[in-house]
Amino acid sequence: MTPAKSRFVTDFGPAPSRRPARVADAIRNEIAVLLLRSIKDPRLQHIAITEVEMTPDLKHARVYYQCPDDQVKKAEDGLARAKGFIRSHLAKTLAMRSVPDLMFKRDLAMAKQEEMERLLQEIAKENETESR
User: For domain 8-107, which CATH number applies: 3.20.20.70, 1.20.1290.10, 3.30.300.20, 3.90.1170.40?
Assistant: First the structure.
């Protein structure tokens, strides 16, 4: 006689893995520490790592960063130049079979938020002038 299967396991499939989120957090912390302590490139002085997204197979990582608007090109060049050093450091530090390929993307969330706040302030000013 075979044991009855739980209907919850068969209905929803296996539980999603939390490992990509944990690896992403570890990568974010390590890159942030590297930028503060080890990487001496002046192009990378004003960069902040905001988020890392991992693919489920842990082969690719999308690293989001913020920097001042006037230093975007310098930051892109500096990160492209430091990519190999960062990956080799991650290989030494994190206990992983293979280090994910890193893709650096500028995080535009703050710029979008500032634009929304500016638009809301303009709308508020227009409403004040119309109500008078």
Answer: 3.30.300.20
pLDDT in tens, 91-100: 999 988 899 9
- Report the alpha-carbon distance of residue 63 to residue 51 in Å, rounded: 6
In DSSP terms, 106 is beta-bridged to 65
- pLDDT band at residue 14 under the 50/70/90 scheme: low
pLDDT in tens, 65-100: 999 888 999 999 999 999 999 999 999 999 888 999
HEC-encoded secondary structure of 41-53: CHHHCCCEEEEEE
Q: Are 52 and 17 in contact (CB under 8 A)?
A: no
Query: What residues are paired with 1 via a beta bridge?
Result: none
- Tokens 């690719």 appear where? 60
Predicted TM-score of the model (pTM): 0.74
Cα 110 to the center of its chain, rounded Å: 13
Distance separating alpha carbons of residues 57 and 126, to the nearest angstrom: 51
